[in-house]
Amino acid sequence: xxxLSVTYMKCQSCAAKVNCHECDAYLRDDLxxxxxxxxxxxxxxxxxxxxxxxxxxxxxxxxxxxxxxxV
Length: 71
Description:
By secondary structure, the chain is of the alpha+beta class. It has a single domain, classed as Alpha-Beta Plaits (2-Layer Sandwich), CATH 3.30.70. Helix content is 35%, strand content 30%. It is built from three helices and five strands, in the order ββααββαβ. The chain has helices spanning 12-15, 22-32, 57-66, and strands at residues 2-5, 7-8, 37-43, 48-53, 69-70. A three-stranded antiparallel beta sheet has the order 1-4-3. The longest helix has 11 residues, at 22-32. 17% of the residues are buried.
């Protein structure tokens, strides 16, 4: 599994560096529907996302950025 440190810019709490646990389920559900992502774990408290994916680095970065997630 690939582990990434991320910031979620679409959430004002995360942008203000406040932990937002409500985003975990939303992001996990959203990313798990993405073609090429087999498994995903989200921990916004730790600002980490773990992914099992066949996407290359650029494709994954674009997918995350489209959702407001920056590595």
